[in-house]
Amino acid sequence: MILTTYTLGEIHEQLGGELIGDPQLLISSILPLESAGPDSISFLSNPKYRKQLQTCKAACVIVGESARELAVARGAAIITKDPYLYYAKLSQIWKKKQTFGQAAAGVHVQAYVHPTAIVHPTASIGPFSVVEEGATIGAYTVLKSRVTVSYGCHIGDHCILHPGVVIGADGFGFALNRDPNSLEWVKIEQLGAVRIGNNVEIGANTCVDRGALGDTVIADGVKLDNLIQIGHNAQIGKNSAMAACVGIAGSAKIGAYCTIAGASNVAGHLEVADHVHVSAVSTVIKSIPVPGQYTGFFPIDTHINWEKNAVALKKLSHLQEQVKLLEQRINEVSQS
Fold first, then answer.
1. Which end of the chain is more exposed for a tag (fewer CB within 10 A), N or C?
2. What is the Cα–Cα distance from 16 to 63, expressed in whole angstroms?
3. Where residue 258 sits, what CATH number does that domain have?
4. Do 199 and 286 fall into the same domain?
5. pLDDT given at position 168
């Protein structure tokens, strides 16, 4: 919990919405509905938590139009079209008031920047981070601790790279020498780099490999969670987002405005259209040319078809027994 203080009037002035209640009411924390107290502000974005709104002790709640009556009945409220988006913007202004956790412009004394690298004066390079030869770091970009940006790679403006991120390690490229006298893997040198656009955020310990020939490309606005692997020459389209433990194999092309949920995988050399949403723990083994939600492993399909197949799968053992009984009866009839 991050403590600071705003009045409801200050929040309303900066973020808008319809304020119902005393604008001088002091708010010192943002908390969930179930734990918010009389000096807190909270929000309701998921209808399944409406019951918690009734018993919430927050000084003010942020809600949509559909929850207006319930929210006003319990006290102060801010009515807005998208409560979750409002909360996101509120968290940003809250952060700006903190005296800790802010990234100062410049290179930390315990970081290393190669003399040929270009780091914008407004960028922040955290402790034990490394920016290698010929790399470029854009304006207002933040590299937190232990980030590595390998040689020749480019990071755009207003990006955030969390601890342990590695940009531009060699891609996984090997050719098998099939000569029986010297059977071995022969390394393919990775001659490309990584190009990352603006407003990209990359979570802790995520790796983006450099291209084998051309570059691996992460477009503007992409959001990557922790522990994600982006293979060499992959392309991730504008404003796409991926949750933790996703794996994107080499040369895969992910469209714009896609979401890939946790622990899902996309095989190499596939193309995924714009506005595709892949459910958690799914494996994409063929290209997806049509926008929509896709789920599953056996193999991936539209979400509706996957649900039907999942229901049928649960009945397989029963159907198997029925088939056996039918076969037995057919044999009995044929022998009589």
1. C
2. 13
3. 2.160.10.10
4. yes
5. 98
* Residue 171 DSSP label: P
Pair 167, 260 in one domain: yes
Active site residues: 232
Chosen domain end from 68, 96, 124: 96
102, part of any domain: no
The first and second tokens of residue 234, run together, are 């992959």
Q: Report the pLDDT value the prediction gives residue 268, as an integer from 0 to 100.
A: 96
DSSP symbol at 67:
G
Query: Coil, strand, or helix at residue 288?
Result: strand
Q: Is residue 273 part of a domain?
A: yes
Q: How far apart are CA 253 and CA 91, in angstroms?
A: 33
266, part of any domain: yes
Please tell me the predicted confidence (pLDDT) of residue 98: 76
The pLDDT value given to residue 2: 52
Residues of the chain with pLDDT under 50: 1
Residue whose C-alpha is closest to residue 121's, from 137, 132, 135, 108: 137
Q: How many domains does the chain have?
A: 2
Distance, in Å, from the CA atom of 107 to the CA atom of 100, rounded to the nearest integer, reads 17
Beginning with the edge strand found earlier in the chain, give each strand of the sheet holding 229-230 in spatial order: 112-113, 130-131, 148-149, 166-169, 207-209, 229-230, 247-248, 265-266, 283-284
Do 84 and 162 share a domain, yes or no? no
Indicate the length of the chain as a whole number: 336
- pTM, whole model, 2 decimals? 0.87
Domain of 89?
6-96
Please tell me the predicted confidence (pLDDT) of residue 202: 98
Question: What pLDDT score does 332 carry?
Answer: 85
One domain, residues 135 and 206: yes
Bridge partner list, 223: 201, 241
Q: Does some domain include residue 1? A: no
pLDDT digits (tens, 9 = 90+) for 164-203: 999 999 999 999 999 988 899 999 999 999 999 999 999 9
Q: Taking the C-alpha atoms of 217, 111, 144 and 194 in order, what is their torsion angle to the nearest 10 degrees?
A: 0
